[in-house]
UniProtKB/TrEMBL annotation:
PANTHER family: SERINE/THREONINE-PROTEIN KINASE UNC-51-RELATED. One of its GO terms (molecular function) is ATP binding. Gene3D superfamilies: Transferase(Phosphotransferase) domain 1. This is Protein kinase domain-containing protein. One of its GO terms (cellular component) is cytoplasm. Pfam families: Pkinase. GO terms for biological process: regulation of autophagy. Residues 1-150 form the Protein kinase domain. It comes from the Eukaryota.
Length: 150
């Protein structure tokens, strides 16, 4: 998995990171075009395969246990209270309750991919990944203290 690569290789070359991100984005683009939101994008859910002698890597998005079908709001999650992995979870999902959980859209997957990119390049997380409350507090404080401009 991508998680295994991150765990074992300290300095992943930038060209390899570009290949990894491009393939994950292509996969997300495809599932989003089908109206599917994954909601648990993380290194452990990205399978990696390198065909012998090819010199290339193929990535696949796995573990669709938390998906949501955006087209008909069909909730596919087995556990409504567990919506993903806290360290990668978008603020929308951390702060969501049962009533507004179905409002999550494809942006939550892009947020998770951003967290994954941060982890690949720094080998850490910008927030404490062990406590949903602390993560949401840090996200709220940091987002409200920054001047968001274009």
């Amino acid at each position: 998995t991508l998680f295994d690569l991150i765990k074992t290789q300290k300095d992943i070359p930038i060209p390899m990171i570009r290949v990894i991100m491009r393939q994950i984005l292509q996969g997300l683009s495809y599932i989003h075009s089908k109206g599917i939101i994954h909601r648990d994008i993380k290194g452990g859910n990205i399978l990696m395969h390198s065909p012998t002698g090819s010199g290339r890597v193929i990535l696949k998005i796995a573990d669709f246990g938390e998906i949501k079908n955006a087209q008909n709001n069909l909730q596919q999650s087995i556990f409504m209270s567990q919506r993903g992995t806290p360290a990668y979870m978008a603020p929308d999902l951390i702060l969501a309750n049962a009533n507004n959980l179905t409002k999550a859209d494809s942006k939550v997957d892009i947020w998770s991919l951003g967290m994954l990119l941060y982890q690949i390049t720094t080998h850490t997380f910008p927030y404490n990944p062990h406590n949903e409350y602390e993560i949401s507090q840090q996200q709220f404080v940091e987002s409200s203290s920054k001047d968001v401009g274009i």
